UniProtKB/TrEMBL annotation:
Domain of life, source organism: Bacteria
Keywords: Kinase, Transferase
Protein name: Dephospho-CoA kinase
One MF term in the entry's GO annotations: dephospho-CoA kinase activity
InterPro entries assigned: GrpB/CoaE, NT_sf
C-alpha cells in the first residue's frame, strides 16, 4: 500500500472501539518526546487527552494529543512543518475550526494519532483537560461514557462526524453538570 492509499484508508476508516491497551500511555509519551525534539521552542505544554488517556476505558486506538501554543497564528504557522514531520491535515477542515487546529498521523491505513493545537491556558484547553480529569477520577462517569460511546459507534459506524458530535454533546452536558 502506498502512502496516498494509506492516507485515504485512514481518512475513511470506520468508527471502532477497542479495549483499553496498556501501551497507549507509552505511545503518547513517545510521540510527545518526538514533537518536543522536533519543535523544542514551539509548545508550552503537551497533554494526553481523549479516552486513550483514561486507564481502563475502551477507545478508538488513536492517541489524542493536546499541544498548547501561544496563539492561533503560531498554530497556523506550525501546520506545514508538522506535515513534514509525518502529520496530515485538511486546510479546509481547519478553516472551519474556531480556536484549534487538527492534524493526524497514520500508518498502514489507520489513524494512529490526532494532534489538537490550541492556545495554552485558554477556555477550550481547560475544558478538554477538565473532562479527561473527571473521567480519570470518576469511574461511574467513565463507565457511562463508554456505554454511550459503544452505542454511538454502532449507530454511526461510517459517520465519524456524527460520532464526534454525539460525544461532544455528552461532554458539554457533563462539564455543565460539574459546574
Amino acid at each position: 500500500m502506498d502512502e496516498t492509499e494509506s492516507l485515504n484508508r485512514a481518512i475513511h476508516e470506520e468508527v471502532a472501539l477497542f479495549p483499553y491497551d496498556m501501551a497507549w500511555p507509552a505511545l503518547f509519551e513517545k510521540e510527545r518526546d518526538r514533537l518536543l525534539d522536533l519543535f523544542p521552542d514551539e509548545f508550552l505544554a503537551i497533554e494526553h487527552i481523549g479516552s486513550t488517556a483514561v486507564h481502563g476505558l475502551s477507545a478508538k486506538p488513536i492517541i489524542d494529543i493536546l499541544a498548547g501554543v501561544e496563539s492561533m497564528h503560531q498554530a497556523d504557522d506550525l501546520l506545514e512543518p508538522l506535515c513534514r514531520a509525518k502529520y496530515a491535515t485538511s486546510l479546509a477542515y481547519n478553516a472551519s475550526l474556531v480556536g484549534r487546529r487538527w492534524l493526524m498521523r497514520w500508518a498502514e491505513g489507520r489513524r494512529t494519532h490526532h494532534l489538537h493545537l490550541m492556545v495554552y491556558g485558554g477556555e477550550e484547553w481547560h475544558r478538554r483537560l477538565a473532562f479527561r480529569n473527571r473521567l480519570r477520577a470518576d469511574t461511574e462517569l467513565a463507565q457511562r461514557y463508554e456505554k454511550k460511546k459503544r452505542l454511538w459507534a454502532a449507530e454511526f459506524t461510517s459517520d465519524r462526524e456524527a460520532y464526534t458530535a454525539a460525544k461532544g454533546d455528552f461532554i458539554k452536558q457533563e462539564l455543565k453538570n460539574a459546574s
